[in-house]
Amino acid sequence: MALLPHNPNAFARSPLDRAGHHRRDEAWLATALAAETTRIVPFFRHRPFVVDDGDAVAVGWLGAHARSAIAPADARTLFLGLDAEGAAHFAVDVPDDAPLNDIGRFDDLRALGPRLSREELATIGPAKAVFEWHAKSGFCANCGVATVVSEAGWKRECPTCNAEHFPRVDPVCIMLPVIGEKCFLARQRMWPRGMHSALAGFIEPGETIEEAVARETLEEAGLRVCEVRLHSTQPWPFPHSLMIGAICEVDDDRETVDTHELESGRWFTRDEARALMAGKHPDAFCPPPFAIAHQLLKTWSEG
User: Fold this and answer.
1) What fold does the segment set 170-302 form as a domain?
2) pLDDT band at residue 54 using 50, 70 and 90 as cut-offs
3) Where are the domains of the chain?
4) pTM
């Protein structure tokens, strides 16, 4: 594994070696799917299988032998990678949850986020994103013919025009505007009462990250960015984004919120930001630690 700086974000830094060179090796994949050491995590309707142990919850890994009992031979299967001991890990998209109801449950990954370990989130996050991509990409964007899955679930091919289709990743900038001892957070109408978070928006073709941060901040809050400091990145499988986090200095605090995009926005001091994260603010709260918005707020409030 690469020796990279610490990344504070959930869904980042999978403990598995993706071992992409095995994806085209059908014989190796067949052997791996039958190996006693192999582990499989079922997904049903894009929800991972988990098991409860008292107040704790964990990914419900099954042995390879269980695959035939929970899914047909042609069930969509994704090779996730190899662990430190060389054991293969797969995700399988099952058509029915009934065979596993007695030992665990399928649950929403976003809801599970605060309860699963960092390693578990980073391991199964790609499966959630790729399975959703498969569900929306059954036909060739070039000629309209039904595509077929290849390379252990990481590719779709068109049998007619030979076009190759790969899982999409949507780049999103997410930024915390700051000036002096204040930061700006906003809220959307659909969010729970009191929830405030960082600004965010998709990066458009032809934009740098910094340009996207400046454009989105101006569009959503009417604030002009004069400096951008990149913070960290986070794979976000809802459905398949790459969140690119930044803290941006703005030239004044006269916001003009775009009420088409947002419900409202407000400024918070460093002390208020710390109260938000601790759940002690009297009328507002922020996303939990597994969201990059929380990590942006944490970095700034502790600076």
Assistant:
1) Nucleoside Triphosphate Pyrophosphohydrolase (3.90.79)
2) confident
3) 20-135, 170-302
4) 0.94
